[in-house]
Design brief:
The protein is mainly β and 132 residues long. The protein has strands at 14-18, 29-35, 38-47, 50-55, 80-81, 88-89, 96-98, 110-114, 117-121, 126-128. The mean pLDDT is 92.
Length: 132
């Protein structure tokens, strides 16, 4: 019996939003992806002038972290906080600096800004959601 055909990997950058939609240390843009062919969520935010992106999944227990839609930063807008476990992550690199997953890191999503548009780049693990 022949093996099922796997869909080809998509590696081209995917448009996400206008660069102006991501205010410095403001609300994140949350978006759907496929992680290892399973539904998942990711987010992008602007931190210290740079757009950073991660899977919306705590390194301690794989649960979504935003405490309200698109809100990941603590009150001082310094750390990404998991609303479930209180783990604190460095926004610039995703490393857990406090809480139950100290030393682990968020799964990064590669981001780009070109001509006023934000894009994310799929890889072998993270792919766009297939069109309906």
């Amino acid at each position: 019996m022949p093996e099922p055909t796997r869909p080809a990997l998509i590696l081209e950058p995917q448009p996400l939003c206008a660069a102006s939609d991501l205010a410095e240390r403001g609300l994140a843009q949350v978006f759907d992806v496929q992680l290892w062919r399973q539904p998942a969520r990711a987010f992008a935010m602007r931190f210290d002038g740079k757009v950073v992106g991660y899977l919306n999944r705590c390194a301690h227990v794989p649960t979504e972290m935003d405490w309200q839609a698109g809100q990941f930063l603590d009150q001082d807008k310094r750390w990404i906080i998991c609303a479930i476990h209180g783990a604190a992550y460095e926004p610039a690199n995703g490393v857990c600096v406090g809480g139950p997953c100290r030393g682990k890191r968020l799964h990064p999503v590669k981001m780009h800004e070109v001509d006023g548009q934000v894009f994310w780049s799929p890889d072998n693990d993270i792919q766009p959601v297939a069109p309906a």
